[in-house]
Design goal:
By secondary structure, the protein is an alpha/beta fold. The protein has one domain (2-222): Metallo-beta-lactamase, Chain A (4-Layer Sandwich), CATH 3.60.15. It is 23% helix and 31% strand. The chain contains 7 helices and 16 strands. The strands form 3 sheets. The protein has a 7-stranded mixed beta sheet with strand order 6-5-4-3-2-1-16, covered by helices on one side. A 7-stranded mixed beta sheet has the order 7-8-11-12-13-14-15, with helices on one face. Strand 14, helix 7 (209-214) and strand 15 form a beta-alpha-beta unit. The longest helix has 11 residues, at 177-187. The termini are close together.
């Protein structure tokens, strides 16, 4: 299993023969490694989106057309794109639902945030915000999406027992490093934690040091954008 941070909350996850792009904000993402664009997008088999905010879905339909791959996400947003975005294959599902992508099982789970997209006429509701449990190779990865700490997380631990947590941790719009550490230590039992949704803008947290300090005995990874790590 391999993980590549594409900057902000954008992720490339290689698991069980699939290459999943999660919330791939490419154009306009100040942290995206543009010099490695072809390399980090190569071989992608599917796109997952967690919610409709611009820093998670801007350019996704265009990217799906370019790569010729389907987009998976909340039914409301997928239904809209399926009707309005010619040549884009969408698969809509909802919280508690599981879809198969090859040998990978992806379960949509709850998050606590908001979800809308700005168009010419103003904001459009894009369905509820979500996270994902991604299971393959006998392991499970939790992608939190944008969220605060939730009591639901203890249920997700019981149901899915994820070994790896990819957690939003930048603060202001989502939980910060302290709250992410609380979730990781009190509600989950991760072996590996990877923070995302930080460093991108000045109002977000710029360092993962507080997360590392709060999780002794847990492998906390803090890669640079474009860096690929074995999980």
């Amino acid at each position: 299993m391999k993980y590549t941070w594409l900057g902000h909350a954008s992720i490339r996850l290689e698991i069980a023969g699939q290459v999943l792009l999660i919330d791939p904000w490419i154009d306009g993402n100040p942290m995206f490694p543009n010099e490695r664009r072809e390399e980090v997008l190569a071989g992608a088999t599917a796109i997952l989106v967690t919610h409709g905010h611009f820093d998670h879905v801007s350019g996704v339909p265009e990217l799906a057309r370019e790569l010729g791959i389907p987009v998976y996400g909340i039914a409301d947003l997928m239904g809209w794109w399926g009707a309005s975005e010619r040549g884009v294959e969408t698969v809509g599902f909802n919280k508690g639902g599981t879809v198969g992508i090859g040998d990978v099982a992806v379960t949509m789970v709850s998050a606590s945030h908001s979800s809308s997209l700005m168009i010419d006429d103003g904001p459009v509701y894009t369905g509820a915000e979500a996270g994902y449990m991604i299971a393959g190779e006998g392991r499970c990865v939790y992608v939190s999406g944008d969220t605060d700490v939730m009591a639901d997380m203890s249920v997700l631990q019981d149901l899915h027992a994820p070994e790896i947590g990819i957690l939003c941790a930048g603060g202001h719009f989502t939980m910060d490093m302290k709250r992410a550490a609380y979730a990781a230590s009190r509600l989950f039992r991760f072996q590996t934690v990877i923070p995302v949704h930080y460093r991108t803008f000045p109002l977000l947290e710029q360092s993962a040091d507080a997360l590392k300090a709060a999780l002794p005995g847990v492998r906390v990874l803090d890669p640079e954008p474009g860096e690929t790590l074995e999980l």
